[in-house]
Amino acid sequence: PTVARDRLRIAIQKSGRLAEPARALLASCGLSWRESRDRLFCYGETLPVDLLLVRDDDIPGLIADGVCDLGVVGRNVLLEQDAGRRGDGRASAFREWRALGFGSCRLALAVPEGWEWQGAAQLAGKRIATSYPALLSQWLVAQGVAADVVLLSGSVEIAPRLGQAEAICDLVSSGATLAANQLKPVQTVIESEAVLAGPIGGFDDVRGELADLLLRRLDGALRIRH
Ligand code: PRT
Ligand code: ZN
């Protein structure tokens, strides 16, 4: 996709945890939009910076395909999809440009409360349920542990009770969901928060200047918040 474009297109989550904070942060950078009737596309008014409202899981691929220039997504999603691509022998096609300071959580291994945790070796030969197979597999390789990764797209925390797995690897913020399922976090795989994601390189048309302007304003807005 080498078509020169004169507007910047940013993908954000349509609904969910990151939707409102992402929009509010971009608005605090002086952006405003006119919403389309289908509410999937918001046309930039104060600056030529448009929004595309999508599922968070689609954001890295939209950047890789050049459909969107930038995106706001959890680092957990970005790293998982990057690890998945590289596992398939493909090159990296997106990276983290800025950490945004909201949507904090961690991808953690959790085991039944009754286990006396002695370290990663305890997971050898066990089944671990997760929605993050590439990051979990990478972590297991780094630990030198052979375990079975059971891929579930949701409700990972009930897998041990259902007998689908002995342990899980899932996002944790307050820890209430783990506790409600008699599980305890024992190891952090990655620390996550919402990030501004973009291509590996930059843009070679006017989008480069728009992105620079946005980054300057974003850095100012992030400094004020912290
Ligand atoms: O519809 P779409 O696909 O866009 O949304 P989604 O349902 O996939 O994502 P969403 O909105 O749930 O989460 C978006 C992003 O928010 C994630 O990718 C993370 O980067 C971030 N985030 C921050 C979290 C959490 N905190 C979090 N707690 N995402 C999910 N959770 C889950 C967690 O897995 C647990 O099951 O929330 C549950 C409650 O957590 P506790 O520990 O507070 O009980
Ligand atoms: Zn999602």
From TrEMBL:
Enzyme class: transferase
Claim: tRNA-binding is one of the keywords in the record: no
Catalyzed reaction equations: 1-(5-phospho-beta-D-ribosyl)-ATP + diphosphate = 5-phospho-alpha-D-ribose 1-diphosphate + ATP
Keyword annotations from UniProtKB, A to Z: Amino-acid biosynthesis, ATP-binding, Cytoplasm, Glycosyltransferase, Histidine biosynthesis, Magnesium, Metal-binding, Nucleotide-binding, Transferase
Cellular location(s): Cytoplasm
Domain of life, source organism: Bacteria
GO biological process terms held by the UniProt record: L-histidine biosynthetic process
GO MF annotation: an example: ATP phosphoribosyltransferase activity
Cofactor requirements of the protein: Mg(2+)
ATP phosphoribosyltransferase catalytic domain location: 55-198
Primary localization: cytoplasm
Biological role stated in the UniProt entry: Catalyzes the condensation of ATP and 5-phosphoribose 1-diphosphate to form N'-(5'-phosphoribosyl)-ATP (PR-ATP). Has a crucial role in the pathway because the rate of histidine biosynthesis seems to be controlled primarily by regulation of HisG enzymatic activity.
Name listed for the protein in its UniProt record: ATP phosphoribosyltransferase
Gene: hisG
Part of the full-length chain shown: 6 to 231 of 304
